[in-house]
Amino acid sequence: MQPKVSIIGAGPAGFALAADLQRHGKRVLVYSHPTHLRHANGVREKGHLQANGVMECSTTLPVTSDMGEAVAFSRILILTVPSTGQETVLQELKKFALHRHTIVAVPGNLFSLVAAAELDAECILETNLSPYSCRMEEGGLLTVMGRKKRIFIAPLSHSQQQQRGQNQIQKSPNLGGAAAVTTVVYDKMRSLFPMELRWCSSVVEVCLCNVNGVFHPLMMLMNAGRIESQSTATTTSSTTGSGDNFLLYRDGLTRSVANAMLAVDRVRMRIGEAFGLRLPSAVQISNECYGQAFADFVDLARNSPPHNRLRAPSTLENRNLSEDVPDLLVTWCCLAEKLGIDASPIRAVIVLVGMATGVDYFAIGRNLQRLHLDDVSADELVARFSPGGAHGMMVDCGIPPEEGGKYMAVL
């Protein structure tokens, strides 16, 4: 019998994952929210999804706007909506009994901490990034510029799911049972995803490895004038094509932009150190995900095929800011300041983007209150999310060292 998977989110990432899973022998159902049907309708009208780039295929994918149908179709729900849309999906999922369902947020951005207080799911996992660099055009045409060779993943620990927003930290009462569940989840995920998985010690480690927060906001902010000027040029110079948007990475990630990124990246890695983690640099994480070996930000921007062909958006109203600032940078900044780490480079980016867009990202973003961590002390925070800490017990679950080490946090 073919394994079945429900993909919650009918955007480029959702359709790319659905097509890839179907190519690898899975039965899939794609859910599109009734208020976000543009891409789903394009695929329906065309009769199939056409993918090109590094993933060439033409495939027929079933699409539904009924969450009940998606929940009934499979006990594995993969959320591919932007984190700005996750809470809309959460309101839909709350209507169903999910105690036998596994939910995977791709990427997570600590969705599990937001959702654990409201969902009775068997397990919630998060990845650091989407497996695909892709764009979707009208008429069901999907262009995949890059397909990652590896993504980072972790589950929310069983003890934290039991808290449901409370601050009392509980250990799993049955270490042996937890180890068994860990192995089951590991095997399920390994058989599901068509790329390698690096298992992390916690969802916080996974969040810190979403390097979009290092790349995207500063490229947008430091090229804001060019983005808006070229957008105007595009509308006034449609005949020559001279108004086409510049290449965001290749043209927009210069040495000065890279220097600012390094400052943000250092704070991200210091947060990791506070949790007992030796996080790779943002470039190293990108290299690992794509199987590359670039020396620095500028080298990657100029020479990485998944990156150097991406055109800049035509406006600052783009998920590079609307998602990565409130749901990554705000989280990192709040964690750093709670732990006594100088977060001024990250705070500066958040404040400047807020000044440019008129949005109070600290108010709307995933701050500690939204993550149910506002009343947790710094010591408790470290204990909860550190590998091998008092409440982050580790068990041997047979994971090969090359796939994230011998140990994994208890579920």
UniProtKB/TrEMBL annotation:
It holds the Pfam family NAD_Gly3P_dh_N. Residues 199-356 form the Opine dehydrogenase domain. InterPro entries: 6-PGluconate_DH-like_C_sf (IPR008927), 6PGD_dom2 (IPR013328), G3P_DH_NAD-dep_N (IPR011128), NAD(P)-bd_dom_sf (IPR036291), Opine/Lysopine_DH (IPR051729), Opine_DH (IPR003421). It catalyses: sn-glycerol 3-phosphate + NAD(+) = dihydroxyacetone phosphate + NADH + H(+). One of its GO terms (biological process) is glycerol-3-phosphate catabolic process. Residues 4-105 form the Glycerol-3-phosphate dehydrogenase NAD-dependent N-terminal domain. Keywords: Oxidoreductase. Signal peptide: none annotated. GO terms for molecular function: glycerol-3-phosphate dehydrogenase (NAD+) activity; NAD binding. This is 6-phosphogluconate dehydrogenase. It comes from Chaetomium strumarium.
